[in-house]
Amino acid sequence: MATLPVYRWRMAPDGYATYRQLRALGLRPGGQDVAAQVERPRRRRGPLVAYLYRIDRAKPVRPMTPAKWAALAKANAARRICPECRRDAGYVIPPSLGMCPACAFPDNAPEGASWNSSPHTAP
Fold it and tell me: Can you tell me the distance from the alpha carbon of 61 to that of 41, in angstroms, rounded to the nearest whole number?
């Protein structure tokens, strides 16, 4: 097994890019192996490592099909619906709560608050 070339932070030669840099260029690694790595030293821990791919071997990003767009919209819509009151919160519900704030904190709502009008709270 050959070892990877290791470059210091911001010292990689032209022709290499990280995964995010490839994405910004509209490219993907396309099945190629990691070509090199960049290391950024840190004081008290091991270095940060970024893997580099060759730009000339990268392939264009596959375009989104209508079916993929529909699946993505459905998944994002599911993240907006509260599992308790089944209402659309209008934003992605925080995973830390697992439900909309009105359901998670029903006692903290001020009187007449429109966001606390879930069907399972007492009037």
Answer: 32
Question: Residue length, the chain?
Answer: 123
Angstrom distances, CA of residue 115 to CA of 22, 89, 103: 42, 9, 10
CA 19 to chain centre: 14
CA distance 88 to 81: 4
What CA–CA distance (Å, rounded) separates 123 from 117?
Answer: 8
Q: What pTM does this model have? A: 0.64
Q: Which of 18, 14, 23 is nearest to 53 (CA)?
A: 18
**Which pLDDT tens digit goes with each residue over 64-104?**
999 999 999 999 999 999 998 999 988 899 888 888 888 88
Residue 103: exposure state from Cβ atoms within 10 A (0-12, 13-18, ≥19): buried
3-class DSSP state of 54: strand
Cα separation, 45 vs 38, in Å, equals 16
Segments of 9-58 assigned E as strands: 16-17, 27-28, 36-40, 48-54
